[in-house]
Design a protein that fits this description.
413 residues, 14-stranded mixed sheet, 4 helices, three-stranded mixed sheet
Length: 413
């Protein structure tokens, strides 16, 4: 047979290196298709999440749907939307063991959420946040171990409430007289997260009204600048009076100064200078108080009728010597770790106070005098106790034993 009649061999793709339909060159194409499909699915899920979040935050139906599914939250007839303006006839939030916050006619305007300029990851801002009435029930206390005091007060969210208002705040300790017209401007995390501010604070309870402001640092040592003004109009047998209090310094050990004056003849005054340690086991570091013609009955319902004149000092450091002098009959105490007290002015009615059992420093000496215009005798009672459990009360006229668990009653001399 001639060579021209031989069949021409067909080239093999594997032998010549040509790609096969299922060869290596098709594998990147398949991977790209899988990645594109996965990206499309993820993008669709993200879009659905964004659309769902937008529906919840921006629509009335979405807001109602979300509120009905929040644990511990009950909403009655909501209207409006989360972002923007919202209101409800009633909102209940349950927390802890038996705790509940009930808000009636609650609402806010122009709620906005954005990025915080400080260390917080979000900014939440309200133009107004209000409720006509609020009932607060505190949860039952939990048996927990003592935790160390905080070293800073930074928050993950910056909060702004330009106008906060609660028409009436009811709590069990307030009895049948709630706090009324509570108003304030709130900015938690101001100055790039360094300060928490409460400005324009005002509230009233019966004839008593209070106003002030509070600025507390978020970073150590958490410096505080808190100012409070109290004022009460004349009501029945109670005279009009006013008081101012300032708390300044690191939050763990700050100085409290205050002055109270009643509009009577003669004017009644009380001045206070103290060191407070709110995180310590014994929160009072030092106390100095001065009274002039102070009538407790004119300031406190059910209080005794008095005309206090004098000075009291309490120091919670070691007291090595007897406390200092006074202008009238006085008795001083000495002792080790504890505090010394002086309150002496020629009185006409006197009472003595006993040391109460306490886990921190113990009062080693106390002299208290009270005067009243209807009595003609004067005396001063004193309590002197060792650095351990107090056991003896001494007066200018006699000595008598007392139990630290009981306070001796006030009596006319």
């Amino acid at each position: 047979m001639a060579e021209t009649d031989r069949p021409t061999p067909t080239p093999s793709p594997e032998r010549d290196g040509a790609p096969t339909p299922n060869g290596p060159s098709h594998r990147p194409r398949r991977l790209r298709r899988w990645l594109l499909g996965l990206g499309a699915v993820v993008a669709a899920l993200v879009l659905l999440a964004v659309a769902g979040l937008w529906w919840v935050l921006r629509s009335e139906s979405g807001t109602t749907f979300a509120l009905e599914r929040l644990p511990g939250v009950t909403v009655v007839r909501p209207h409006g939307r989360f972002l923007g303006d919202f209101g409800a006839d009633e909102l209940r939030v349950r927390f802890g063991d038996g705790g509940e916050l009930r808000l009636v006619q609650v609402g806010w305007t122009r709620l906005a959420v954005g990025r915080s300029g400080g260390p917080g990851w979000a900014l939440v801002a309200f133009d107004t946040l209000s409720a006509e009435a609020a009932w607060l029930t505190l949860p039952k206390p939990q048996q927990t171990t003592r935790t160390p005091p905080p070293t800073e007060l930074q928050l993950p969210v910056e909060l702004i409430v330009r106008q906060l208002r609660i028409g009436a705040l009811h709590m069990a300790p307030l009895g049948d007289q709630p706090l009324r017209e509570l108003r304030a401007q709130v900015h938690l995390g101001a100055d790039d997260g360094r300060v928490h501010r409460l400005d324009g604070l005002s509230v009233a309870r019966g004839p008593l009204s209070a106003s002030g402001q509070a600025h507390v640092g978020a970073l150590a040592p958490m410096p505080a600048d808190i100012r409070l003004q109290l004022q009460q109009a004349a009501v029945a047998q109670w005279p009009a009076w006013a008081a101012t209090f300032n708390l300044k310094g690191p939050l763990a050990e700050s100085t409290l100064t205050g002055r109270l004056q009643a509009r009577t003849e003669p004017a009644q005054t009380l001045s206070v200078d103290a060191v407070l340690r709110p995180f310590a086991e014994w929160p009072l570091g030092r106390l100095q108080a001065q009274a002039s013609d102070l009538d407790v009955a004119a300031l406190l319902a059910g209080g005794p009728q008095t005309a206090l004149n004098g000075r009291i000092e309490i120091l919670l450091e070691a007291v090595d010597d007897a406390m200092a002098t006074a202008t009238g009959p006085n008795t001083s105490g000495s002792g080790g770790k504890g505090c010394g007290t002086i309150f002496a002015t020629p009185p006409k009615v006197s009472c003595s106070l006993a040391c109460m059992a306490m886990p921190a420093p113990i009062i080693t000496s106390m002299v208290v005098s009270m005067s009243a215009p209807f009595s003609g005798r004067s005396s001063t009672n004193s309590i002197t106790a060792p650095s351990a459990t107090p056991s003896v009360a001494a007066s200018s006229s006699d000595r008598k034993k007392f139990s630290p668990s009981r306070l001796p009653s006030t009596k006319a001399m």
